[in-house]
Write a structure and sequence with these properties.
Elements lengths: L1 E3 L4 E5 L13 E6 L1 H7 L14 E11 L3 E8 L7 E8 L11 E5 L2 E7 L2 E8 L8 E8 L2 E8 L3 H9 L6
Length: 170
């Protein structure tokens, strides 16, 4: 099953059994503070307005090369309670093919269609493994950007509230 977001379709893929081998495109990754990330990327962005109680910003990663991504990571302040969420900002054009269509692949167990505000979205669920956390993710188009929000040990209501608090992108 695919979930169509408009310009991009989200597809579920099986979990890899091992790390992929072979040639890979060269990417540079920088770990940054939030103010440094604002300066490093080639686009303007604002972090989510809603951060659940007990969570704090940990770091930003700027991935550049053939593709550009910004990844913001937040963690629960009490490490023993676990929990984190990661928000990816990526220009939609990076996922579009020459025919105008595009595909974004996600790993998980269940893929379903939902909404983030007024935007069509994909909800990705990964069942908890023995002793492991449950993972939920939302993927949606926000202006000319693809947003991918992933949460570990985070209530679904908090995940949706974070997604809906991400300011509109150009």
């Amino acid at each position: 099953m695919d979930v169509n977001l408009g310009r991009i379709a989200v597809s579920l893929v099986a979990r890899p059994g091992s790390a992929p081998s072979g040639a890979h495109e060269a990417l540079q990754v920088s770990s940054l503070a939030l103010d440094q990330a604002l300066q490093a990327v080639s686009f303007n962005f604002d972090p989510p307005a809603y951060i659940p109680s007990g969570f704090e910003f940990r770091d930003a990663a700027h991935v550049s090369g053939a593709r550009e991504l910004l990844i913001l990571t937040y963690v629960r302040q009490a490490p023993s309670s676990g929990g984190s969420f990661t928000l990816v900002y990526a220009p939609v054009t990076q996922y579009r093919s020459s025919d105008g269509g595009g595909r974004y692949l996600v790993v998980g167990d269940i893929l379903s269609q939902t909404m983030v505000g007024a935007h069509a979205a994909a909800l990705v669920s990964t069942e908890a493994r023995a002793g492991g956390p449950q993972a939920l993710a939302l993927v949606w188009e926000n202006g000319d950007f693809l947003q991918h929000l992933m949460g570990l040990n985070l209530a679904g209501g908090d995940l949706r509230r974070i997604a809906e608090s991400v300011p509109a992108m150009p």
